[in-house]
Amino acid sequence: MKNQHLVDLIAVILLVIGGLNWGLVGLFSWDVISSIFGEMSALTRVIYVLIGLSAVYRIAMWAKARAK
């Protein structure tokens, strides 16, 4: 159960980072993740994939909770 809590926490943190990044892209055309890690570097791509997987994970968890 402790591992599940950690995975949930990491997913939420990644989603907040992704949401803030997209907000900055929309408002100021500034991609913070690319600015820090390089324009489409391997690490930037990994971060984007992890944010996307976090979204899929949270959607699955919300759907599971709603089904109960």
Properties at a glance:
mainly alpha, 0% strand, 3 helices, 68 residues
Helix content: over 70%
**Average pLDDT across residues?**
94
* Beta-strand content estimate: under 5%
Regions with little confidence, pLDDT below 50 for 5+ residues: none
Secondary-structure topology with pairs:
Blueprint: H1 2-28, H2 32-37, H3 42-67
Short description:
Helix content is 87%, strand content 0%. The protein has helices spanning 2-28, 32-37, 42-67.
Overall description:
- The protein is mainly alpha-helical.
- It is built from three helices and no strands.
- α1 (2-28) crosses α3 (42-67).
